[in-house]
């Protein structure tokens, strides 16, 4: 695999780990209530991060397949 593709794959794998941790954290009971107290809306849905994980895995698969 080319060096640039290898770097992208490594980055995406780290992103998957981060998204997994965020998804698990945000799925805990009580977290949503505390996060909404600030008034500002942000992307805090566990399902958002689960979708990003699926996209990243697909990209990794496509990058590995193309080499």
In short:
The chain is 75% helix and 0% strand. It is mostly helical.
Give the percentage of residues in beta strands.
under 5%
Which of globular, elongated, flat, extended, rod-shaped describes the shape?
A: elongated
Q: Estimate nothing, just give the exact number of structural domains.
A: 1
User: How do the helices and strands follow one another from N- to C-terminus?
Assistant: HHH
Low-pLDDT windows of residues: none
Any idea what the radius of gyration is? 15 Å
What is the overall number of helices? 3
Report the count of strand segments: 0
Termini Cα gap:
5 Å
- Which percent range fits the helix content? over 70%
Q: What does the largest sheet look like?
A: none
Structural class label: mainly alpha
User: Would you tell me the overall average pLDDT?
Assistant: 81
């Amino acid at each position: 695999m080319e060096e640039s593709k290898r770097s992208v794959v490594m980055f995406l794998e780290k992103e998957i780990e981060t998204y997994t941790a965020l998804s698990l954290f945000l799925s805990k009971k009580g977290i949503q209530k505390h996060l909404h107290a600030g008034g500002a809306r942000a992307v805090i849905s566990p399902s958002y991060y689960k979708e990003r994980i699926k996209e990243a895995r697909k990209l990794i698969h496509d990058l590995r397949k193309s080499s």
